Structure formats: structure tokens, C-alpha cells
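Notes to self after the Tuesday call (sharing in case useful).
The group wants a holo model before anyone commits to mutagenesis around the pocket. I volunteered. Ligand is magnesium ion. Logging inputs and output together so the record is complete.
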Amino acid sequence: MRCKRLRERMAGAKTPSKSASKSKNGNGSYYEQILARLFNRFGRCKSHQKFLMLGLDGAGKTTLLRKLKLLEPPSQPTVGFNLESLQYRQHTLVIWDVGGQEKIRALWHHYFIQSQGLIFVLDSSDPSRIPEARKELQKLLHEPELKDAKLLVYANKQDVQNCLSVSNLVDMLDLSIGEDRQWHMQGCSASTGKGVYEGLDWLVDALRPC
Ligand SMILES: Nc1nc2c(ncn2[C@@H]2O[C@H](COP(=O)(O)OP(=O)(O)OP(=O)(O)O)[C@@H](O)[C@H]2O)c(=O)[nH]1
Ligand SMILES: [Mg+2]
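Result:
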């Protein structure tokens, strides 16, 4: 199975070298070479659709991804990335979950290529970090490589009492991002699973038929 081969190749790429992780624009770093090879190979798999899952550290990205795969929540923050392939409504969704810690954000750009969708995860239970999340999201929306990517924002941790509502978050994020961009914000709880598939449904509906 293609994804199995992809996963086997990932094993060698999971830990970037120190020099690579410091280089924001490094040409031909070990890290970039491995990713470029994977993306090129992946690009030939027309039945697969690539989605990039980003967001601040602790937002719940990995918990959400693992929920979709019916796996236990993660035991630690992501250093590097996680890759999962998911069969959903006759689509094969390949989801890249990249760590959100500040140092790792400098590596996000390595993962932009050929992303049909950007899944941005917010922690709705922590109003103090919404301005930081908004800044990161706005930066992503100005990235040329992501200009055609559909945007799904998960307002995660809706199970937490007094969390921010979807309508509050839409206002706070100021999602005035160009009329061409298709976007949707979905309230969810990665812990309970509520809302998670509704978000995926929007994404799949927004995709061109493959
Ligand atoms: N109450 C609640 N807690 C959640 C939810 N989703 C995630 N968490 C918790 O939030 C913490 C961070 O979750 P992660 O999935 O590791 O967050 P992440 O976005 O992958 O973080 P990085 O890997 O550092 O980028 C964990 O303690 C999770 O149990 C949710 O929907 N509700
Ligand atoms: Mg994680």
C-alpha cells in the first residue's frame, strides 16, 4: 500500500538534524531533501489529497488527528510531525500534523507544498492565546504556496466550560481573507469527538472531485 511505503520512508525523516531545524530558508538541507522527495512521490498519487494541520502548541492537533484514527490521545507534544492517512467518503485524506511550538513554527513552510487544505486548530478554552493564533493564521493565509488551499478552522476544546464560541472566534480572528478563499470554522472537541467529522464533511465537500 502506497501509504505504508510513505510511512516507512517517514521513519528516517522524523528527526530533523539540528542544522536543518535552524535553517528557515536553507537550500538542500537534509530535512528539505527528504521532504521534497516525499512530496514529489506523493504528488504522483492523484487519489490522495494532502492536508496540513497547523496551530499553536497545545491547541489539540495531535489529539484530533488521533481521534480520527480511533487512537489514544498523544502523551507528549509533537516535536517534528505526525502523518496519517484516512479513508473518508471515498477520499484518501493524508493529514500532516506539524508541531506548533514556537521553534517548530519556523519549519512549517517546508510542509506547504501541494496542500489542498489547511486545517488550523484553535484552543477555544484559552482566550489569552487567540491573538498569537490569529497572527500565525494571518501569516499562513498570505503564503503564496497556500493561496489555493481551503481553510478549515477547528475551534477545539468546546467541551471546556466557558470556552469561546465559534461566532466570537470568527470575530476575533478577523477572517476577512479575500473573497476567493473558501473557509469554514467548526466547533469541536478532539477529546470527545464532537464536531470533528462535521469539519471533515465541509472539507470533503469543498474539494474538487478526484
Ligand atoms: N478538554 C480538552 N482538552 C483537549 C482537547 N484536545 C486536546 N486537549 C488537550 O490539550 C493538550 C494538548 O493537546 P495536543 O493534541 O498534544 O496539542 P497539539 O496541538 O498537538 O500540540 P503540539 O504538538 O505541541 O503542537 C493535551 O493535554 C490534550 O489532552 C479537547 O478537545 N478538550
Ligand atoms: Mg501535537
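Two things stood out.
The radius of gyration is 16 Å.
Residues 55, 57-63, 73-74, 77-78, 99-101, 121, 156-157, 159-160, 189-191 surround guanosine-5'-triphosphate (ligand 1) (CB under 6 Å).
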